[in-house]
Amino acid sequence: MLLLDFLHTQSAHCESGVAANLLTHHGLNISEAMAFGIGGGLFFGYLPFIRINGLPLVTYRAAAGHILRQIAGIPGVCMVEKKFRNRDEAMAELDHALAASIPVGLQTGVFWLPYFPKALRFHFNAHNLVVYGKEGNEYLISLARARFASGALAPKGKMYYLTQAPAELELAPHLVRGIQSVCKMMLASPFPLIGVKGIRFLAKRLGRWPQRLGREKADLHLGHVVRMQEEIGTGGGGFRFMYAAFLQESATIMQEPRLQECAAALTAAGDTWREFAAMAARICKKRGRPEDSYPAMVACLNRCGAMEEKVFAELRQWARQHS
Amino acid sequence: MQHPTSDSTEKIPLPADQGITNGLKVMSYVRNDSGKYELTPDFLWQPVSVVNHQAWEEIAKKITAARNKVEAGRVSCLHYYMIANQMDPGLVAQYTGQPRWKVWLHLVPFIFNRVPADTLRKYAAMYKISLDDLRTGRLLAPFTMTNNQE
């Protein structure tokens, strides 16, 4: 048995949690929300051509690895990232890093992780976790499987660890940069499936689901959207609340009441997302109230889009003044 | 006991629904009374369990349909295991390193009976069942849903 001296803090989202934990291990104390914000983790994308369990991918966060890559770009932080073709090689490399007492982040497919709750073991391949010790052979076999899960977003044995992190970090420029990158994604993407445009696109499509797919399948699609939004790991409200927490923290650091207002506005947007999810859940359960309907949900989503557009426009302006 | 994970598996009472998390610790960002966000454990929002339940009901429906099809002799037992583990032929093909069309063929009972042992072993290892189960066409619950595995 091998266990590293690693202080683990429970987190709401896997990737930002991993990033915060790895940085903290290297002596840079950072909260999860901060890591999420600096890493530019917020996103929206409706990508119907990628299927998860036969349902279209809706994502409320940046692609797996985005946060870590952004954080690795901070001067003074050195991150090693590796992908593998060969399973034995990948596991040997992991052992090697652990033997050198380096905690390692892995991308895995949750279906193969035995510790994962039964009800969440779907074929979803973008779960990040930290390995900071090992024990038991059985477990390692599952882990090897999980690291080489196939299907959409296959991890290909990806592992990463930090070799260096600064002890002190001036957060201000990095959080401005993080905010800028999120604003760019949300407002200025040329693709109609991404950002605020993506929310509106989803709204449009969602309104047509009952006619196109039939009631039952439409409800399944709807449930999937909500699952992606509220599943454990999102911090609730499709990461909007977590980002609002980051904005609040930034407001304190920068002494900036405008950010505080943005946080409040984003919270309102998150609440609207929740309103949508609650309505969707009632419809999925076939216990809809009289005012629940697909057109009502479309209106709700459009409201979310409008609110987020306003928040990120404001944030973009703020970031421009501070960069 | 396992350590190398990012989330501990301590048993904690959940206010909303025990069934979903199955004892996994949950953290969320929740506002406190003054509107400030705090990382709060044990907070689970009700509609999540509704939609999760919906997803699993759909899977259960598919599994029952697959079982009936196998018992009627229309498909091989590989079809049942594929569906029970939420896979499709493409995914099975990727995991076992075979072309897709071969997996498609293996879903036909007549062809499945002639599949070489090496290939069967790959399937058995993937679904964590024995070679014998596949050969005799025993339909066991998928390993993710039973407790005594791994």
Terminal Cα span of chain B:
12 Å
Secondary structure tally: strands of chain B: 2
| End-to-end gap of chain A | 49 Å
Structure annotation, total helices of chain A: 11
Q: Identify the most extensive interface between protein chains.
A: A-B, 66 and 51 residues
CATH topology of the largest domain in chain B, anyone? 434 Repressor (Amino-terminal Domain)
Oligomer class: heterodimer
Tally of helical segments of chain B: 8
Q: Mean of residue pLDDT of chain B? A: 77
CATH class of the largest domain in chain B: Mainly Alpha
Topology, element by element:
The complex is a heterodimer of chains A (323) and B (150).
Chain A: E1 2-3, H1 14-25, H2 32-38, E2 42-52, E3 55-61, H3 66-72, E4 78-82, H4 87-99, E5 104-108, E6 127-131, E7 133-134, H5 137-147, E8 159-164, H6 171-187, H7 195-213, H8 215-230, H9 240-254, H10 257-284, H11 294-322
Antiparallel strand pairs in A: 1-7, 2-3, 4-8, 5-6, 5-8
Chain B: H1 18-21, E1 27-31, E2 37-41, H2 46-71, H3 77-84, H4 89-96, H5 100-106, H6 109-112, H7 117-127, H8 131-136
Antiparallel strand pairs in B: 1-2
Helix pairs in contact in B: 2-3, 4-5
Structure report:
The complex is a heterodimer of chains A (323) and B (150). Chain A contains eleven helices and eight strands. With 323 residues, chain A is α+β, with helices and mostly antiparallel strands. Chain A folds into two domains: 2-30 and 78-164, no CATH class; 171-322, no CATH class. In chain A, helix 6 (171-187) crosses helix 11, helix 7 (195-213) runs antiparallel to helix 11 and helix 9 packs antiparallel against helix 10. Chain A is globular and about 60 Å long. Chain A starts with a strand and ends with a helix. The model of chain A has no long low-confidence stretch (mean pLDDT 85). Chain B has two domains: 14-44, no CATH class; 47-136, 434 Repressor (Amino-terminal Domain) (Orthogonal Bundle). Chain B is built from eight helices and two strands; from the N terminus they run αββααααααα. Chain B has helices spanning 18-21, 46-71, 77-84, 89-96, 100-106, 109-112, 117-127, 131-136, and strands spanning 27-31, 37-41. Chain B has a two-stranded antiparallel sheet with strand order 1-2. In chain B, helix 4 (89-96) packs across helix 5 (100-106). Chain B starts with 17 loop residues before the first helix and ends in a 14-residue tail after the last helix. At the A-B interface, helix 1, strand 6, strand 7, helix 5 and helix 8 of A face helix 1, strand 1, strand 2, helix 2 and helix 4 of B.
